[in-house]
Predict the 3D structure of the following.
Amino acid sequence: MKRTRVNKNNVYKAVLFFIAFFVGTAITYGDWLIGLISGVIVVLSKEIQGAYEKGRRDGHKEALDNFSKKL
């Protein structure tokens, strides 16, 4: 039987999503839409941070620093 490899980064993001979802839902006393939005924001921020770090590793340090200063 063929084993599939699980990407640990995806598992980490899924766990973060569910934590943010449940905390956001609990804080708003059951409003699951707020929990869903907060989970998506957490996952997207991790994706952006990962892309920024990958760009720095690939040698785009100056361009990324200039872009972050404009934000």
